[in-house]
Amino acid sequence: MTEWQLLNNVQHGQLRVSRCRDSARHFAQIVAGEFLKAAAHYPILFTKNPQTGAFYAGVVMGTEPGRNLLTVDGQLPDYRPADLERQGFFVADGQVVIDPDHPVFGDPDGRLLFGVDGEPEPALQRVQHALHTLERGIPETDALIRRFLSPHGLIEPIDVTLHSDDGRPVRLEGLYTISLDALHGLDDAAALGMFRAGDLQLAYAQAISVQHLHRLGRLRNERLFEPVP
Question: pTM of this prediction?
Answer without folding.
Answer: 0.91
